[in-house]
Amino acid sequence: MNNKILLLLALLGISVGAYAQVPPVVEATNRSIRSTSLTQKFLSPTRIVWKSDNIGSRVLNAERILNSGIGQADLNRGEYLTLVNEKEGQAGILLDFGCEIQGGIEIVTTRNNQKPAGRVRIRFGESVSEAMSDAGVDGATNDHAMRDFVVELPWLGRLSVGESGFRFVRIDLVDADAKLEIKEISAAFRYRDIPYLGSFTCNDERLNKIWMTGAYTVHLNMQDYLWDGVKRDRLVWVGDLHPEVMTVNSVFGDNEVVPKSLDLARDLTPLPNWMNGISSYSMWWVILHRDWYYYQGNIDYLKEQKEYLTALLKHLSTKIDDNGKEILDGNRFLDWPSSENQEAVHAGLQSMMVMTFEAGADLCRVLGDEKTVSLCDASVARLKKHVPSMADSKQAAALLAMSGLVKPEQANSQVLAKDGAHKMSTFYGYYMLIARAMAGDYQGAIDNIRNYWGTMLDLGATTFWEDFDIDWAKNAGRIDELVPAGKVDIHKTYGGYCYEQFRHSFCHGWASGPTSWLSQYVLGVNILEPGGRKVLLDPDLGDLEWVKGTFPTPRGVIEIEHRKNSKGKVETTFRAPAGVEVVVAKK
Prior knowledge:
Radius of gyration: 26 Å
Largest sheet: 9 strands, antiparallel
CATH topology of the largest domain: Glycosyltransferase
Keywords: Signal
GO biological process, one term: carbohydrate metabolic process
Structural class: alpha+beta
Oligomer: single chain
Pfam families: Bac_rhamnosid6H, Bac_rhamnosid_C
Protein name: Alpha-L-rhamnosidase
InterPro entries: 6-hairpin_glycosidase_sf (IPR008928), 6hp_glycosidase-like_sf (IPR012341), Bac_rhamnosid6H (IPR035396), Bac_rhamnosid_C (IPR035398)
């Protein structure tokens, strides 16, 4: 047997028996081989949202396309979806696949077609209106992923094409006086086939849906790397990773996509550069490693970060002036809604410097680097000499509270508890929730979750969005229907900065904060020792009657239930795996 072929098969992980005959896969075995952990499955459409005509002259046998497909062309003749372009109009159909997915589309044609079968225009959409839009108009783009393009279909064959985030697909027959018969249309769903080890259920179904939607939003973004969005921002944005990683910790547990993404950011960013060009994102990298280590407890992986980690902390220590004020350069950024309030940005960066050096001290103490621990402690002491204003910003108030520069009760009463869900953001909303919990205002945080993230669900969302303003919901149509006359098209009308109108991502992992927040503060799971060796259960149910769920640790899943008795006191039961010590808070 050809030794080159055997070597290649070994690299591919394919075992070959001593007498087996194998095909000549390839002669060149020195090429790089890239594998993927993704699974692909095919989904049939759940409904037809729109047809270009309703009298059966241009779109025939439309309902047949809802049948489950097998992905194989055959020689049978029958009644299949048929698109006909007549002189007076173009044939098209808009399909709904039931929920947001990441992947492409598969189209199978019949024998009753020309050779080739014809050209179709395919438009993916996270909303119905986006699938009906034109690239280059109203913010619709092909940035990061092609979502509006023309392809030619084979006669009696199959074509798989596309790679985007979508729920809806519009298909139009392109050529004049043409006819096309289609046997099957399926969505090619590409994802990590991993179990949801964490869970959350309570007596409020709205909160249950929010928890799961946040988990699913991150799951879609767990591709070969941990992305920010599956339609747009299919990139590793380090700051945006933090809410996502906390959701991974709470739902999926240890997964290769997190260290792989953190390492990519490190390797792409030689010091003194900032990750993604943003100083706060390099700080988030330190905080991420602290949180990942405490939840997963992988000391060998932490040791791999020591050289870069200590050099980064040393570099950050040079960005403090004599008065203890941060003087960070690079792109000074927290999130988009706060970006125009430079006073708030400074307050947030000052807070993040404190949080970063505290996280750095924790990690370096584990690594036995007392010199860097002393550097971190001294930096925190210097930074605490300067306490910025909250600048009427919920982003700034949240970080100031989390860093200890401002008392959480003060941040909550003066800023966070005001105006309900107004002035929240999908990214920093997570930290607003944390700060409210630190202030003891669990009920206020739960109400924010119901109103802010719940309103996206009311509008038809199956994943959480890049940004959302509660005022957008006024007189807005749902995203899963053609916008009725007199209603506002929320996708076409709103969005700002880099995500105007249809460019706005409706599946953004940084918006998943309620999932990990509900697991930590309502289910009550707090990690006390690395790797979940010791866990504190400290729930606050607010107005809920009961909550139960599971939480993944490297040693297994903890099963938890809390119920209020007749006197309103919470009674806790749990089952923990061997090696996990569980402590229940006394209240």
